[in-house]
Every structure is written in C-alpha cells, then in structure tokens.
Design a protein that fits this description.
single chain, alpha/beta, Endonuclease, Chain A, 7-stranded mixed sheet, DUF6879, DUF6879 domain-containing protein
Length: 166
C-alpha cells in the first residue's frame, strides 16, 4: 500500500489538504500550548517541515485549508497559533474558511489530501478526533469531486496572514 510519505515525495505539482474538524487528537504539543509554550521541535513536527520544505523546493505547491467554526475551538486556536512557525515557515500556503461561509459548498464527509489531481488520500478519525487510518483512492470521479470541493472552498477562504479569528 502506498504511504502518505511516498505520495508526498512523488508529488510533482500540487498537494492540497482539506481539514474540517474542530478538534483532533490531543498531543504533547497541544498540551504544551495549553501551558503557554509553543513546542514545534518534536521529531514529528521537524520531519513534517522537512517533508514540506523538500516538496516546495521541488516546485510543489502545498496548500492547506481549514474550515473552522467560529469562535474557534481550543484546538483550532492552537492550530492558528502555530501555523506561522510550523506550516507557513515550511512553505505551506494556509487559508481559513469560517464554516458559516461554507454552506453553499458541496464538501466531502472526510478530511483529505489530493496529490497532483490524481490521487486522493482520505483521513478517517474517531468521533473524539483520534486518527484511525487512511484510504487511498484513484477513482477519477471521486478525485475530481474532492479537487472541485477544495478549489471552491479555497477561493472563498482567507489567507493565514489576513485571517483574524473570532
């Protein structure tokens, strides 16, 4: 089975990620943030930034879109607070879309990544936000639906540097 890392490392043009949950798994980094510290030097975070930096150095456009409830949940506020140092610093283009503005969009039921508009990686989570597994999909119709959903939402979203959460 193809892994996320393999998909990222073989991506040539564009990798897009849609996040729609208000809370994800509770990590040590989240706990540190709750205690007033930003900790992005753990091995997973360092590896992530290197993966993104390598992709963008190859000319890959890496885009992350977060559809969020406002006011932000505690977890989403944490994501907002680390985005500049963690995501943007590595080369990700991050945008935010308040959920109220997404009503007219046809969105899939799960978070996902799409690589080069050909491969969809669906993320499955528990109700508590714990990651369960992924599903790789190459069905052209489903991939096209997710690309269209991402692009429609992206066009409505606010760049990270301009977004001011409520």
């Amino acid at each position: 089975m193809t892994t996320f890392k393999e998909l990222f490392n073989t991506c040539k043009h564009r990798a897009v990620h849609l996040e729609m949950r208000d809370s994800y798994m509770q990590t040590e980094q989240f706990a540190a943030w709750r205690a007033g510290r930003i900790d992005i030097d753990d091995p997973d975070s360092v590896e992530w930034r290197a993966l993104v930096a390598d992709a963008t150095a190859r000319g890959v456009q890496v885009q992350r879109l977060r559809i969020v409830s406002e006011p932000l949940s505690e977890y989403t506020r944490y994501e907002y607070d680390i985005t500049e140092l963690h995501n943007a610093a590595a080369g990700e283009d991050v945008r935010w879309l308040p959920r109220r503005q997404a009503t007219a969009l046809s969105l899939p039921g799960n978070d996902f990544w799409v690589f080069d508009t050909t491969t969809l990686l669906v993320n499955h989570f528990s109700g508590a936000g714990d990651w369960l597994d992924t599903e790789v999909v190459t069905d052209p119709a489903l991939v096209a639906h997710c690309v269209a959903a991402f692009n429609g939402a992206w066009n409505l979203a606010v760049p990270h540097a301009e977004y001011r959460p409520t």
